[in-house]
Amino acid sequence: MIRIESKRNKFTYNIYHIVKAFYPGEDVEQKVDGQQESLVTLYMPGDSSFSVFSEEIGLPSVQDPDEQRLQEEKWAVTRRVYQYLAEVNGGGLAWGILTGVRPTKLIMQKIEAGIGREEILRSFQEEDFVSPEKAELAYEIACREHELLSRLDCAEGFSLYVGIPFCPSVCSYCSFSSSPIDQWRDRVDGYLDALVKEIRALGKMAAGRKPDTVYIGGGTPTTLEPEQLDRLLSTITECFDISRALEFTIEAGRPDSITEEKLRVIRKYPVTRISVNPQTMQQKTLDLVGRRHTVKDVVNAFQMARKLGFDNINMDLIAGLPGENAEDMRDTLSRVKELGPDSLTVHALAIKRAAKFGQEGRTAELHSEISQMVEEASRCARSMSLQPYYLYRQKNIAGNFENVGYAEVDKAGIYNILIMEEKQTILAAGAGASTKILLREPIKEKNGKGVGIIRIENVKNITEYISRIDEMIERKGEWLWR
């Protein structure tokens, strides 16, 4: 058990996540006490402790600090705690003190402010303790994102997301809002009725506007039967003018849900990008994590899609799955390279509480194997002429690493960039789908802060989504295009 006692609530978020990154297997307890003398004290295993005082970080003690002073204090304390933990553990974290999911967003803001490359890299490395390799990677990706987004009118355009919350089975590491299709066969048409109603309503709200990207995700969209998939795609193309869309993605995902008939239905529509996601090419691991398909199924599904003319296929992999080491990742990458996907997304395992692994109390170990896997994946992707184009991080991610998307030139997943950088309104339909509305003018909250994005969440429960669909639609209409 590690205990964090802090003088201000402002300190707790960053310090908690940094401590968890260094000690993923430890329980961490937090306590805020405004009367204590130290700004932060860590009580470590083995009866050792470490305290940070105002004088130590070079800031005079004041009774009622303003917001700017609180920010200075927060980052000064965070840096001091990080330095202590790095010293105790014999080395730091790849992303230093950055705990957020969007490190490239920080760089994008600096680029747009006219700050040069050298200053950006210096700040990341010296002030945030990010490793030189990760700082360079983030800068490279931010520049590529900046160039791709320059092709869009982000202020006036929008993207459309449609969620299908069903999977052939639920993977042990998955925390997404998805349910086994076998338990919902007799309710899928009812779900589609509600989903079609929401899509039609969004189409009317967006009348006169054309989406830049369309993304059908989940879950696994190809758990739908061919006629259901046809109904969904025909509704989208009827309700939205996608003549100028830069991409139209269907996350086919699980190979055990892909059939030739379903792929032929998809080919009837202007879909430009699909996914065939193995996560690993090790059969022992597929069996362990609850994916009911074989490595051969992955190969067959991919080759079938190629034969039918799909020329932009993504594959997802996960580094750090239970029982796997760097040699397993090398073997997986070798098999994937033989197939030759047009893009490759490499995730570091993140164990969430909602996932089966999280409920079992498993933790993602901080060890060198994860680092080797991530590095091997990067080298393999570049050897396939795939360049990194987007990056994000998650809480409880193995080794405090990151998820990176690699793609051929002009085959990057633009929706993936938009969802991370929050540069455009995203209309979302389906159970658990999250609409993000970019406001023309920021609105002020009670604390005086300006808010430029409104998030509207659909309910995750499928039954409630069906019964409350009118409410889901009405909530979006209150904010859209304000």
Automatic annotation (TrEMBL):
<dbReference type="GO" id="GO:0051989">
    <property type="term" value="F:coproporphyrinogen dehydrogenase activity"/>
</dbReference>
<feature type="domain" description="Radical SAM core">
    <location>
        <begin position="152"/>
        <end position="393"/>
    </location>
</feature>
<dbReference type="GO" id="GO:0051539">
    <property type="term" value="F:4 iron, 4 sulfur cluster binding"/>
</dbReference>
<dbReference type="InterPro" id="IPR034505">
    <property type="entry name" value="Coproporphyrinogen-III_oxidase"/>
</dbReference>
<keyword id="KW-0560">Oxidoreductase</keyword>
<dbReference type="InterPro" id="IPR007197">
    <property type="entry name" value="rSAM"/>
</dbReference>
<dbReference type="Pfam" id="PF04055">
    <property type="entry name" value="Radical_SAM"/>
</dbReference>
<dbReference type="InterPro" id="IPR058240">
    <property type="entry name" value="rSAM_sf"/>
</dbReference>
<dbReference type="InterPro" id="IPR006638">
    <property type="entry name" value="Elp3/MiaA/NifB-like_rSAM"/>
</dbReference>
<dbReference type="GO" id="GO:0005737">
    <property type="term" value="C:cytoplasm"/>
</dbReference>
<dbReference type="InterPro" id="IPR023995">
    <property type="entry name" value="HemZ"/>
</dbReference>
<protein>
    <submittedName>
        <fullName>Coproporphyrinogen dehydrogenase HemZ</fullName>
        <ecNumber>1.3.98.3</ecNumber>
    </submittedName>
</protein>
<dbReference type="InterPro" id="IPR023404">
    <property type="entry name" value="rSAM_horseshoe"/>
</dbReference>
<dbReference type="GO" id="GO:0006779">
    <property type="term" value="P:porphyrin-containing compound biosynthetic process"/>
</dbReference>
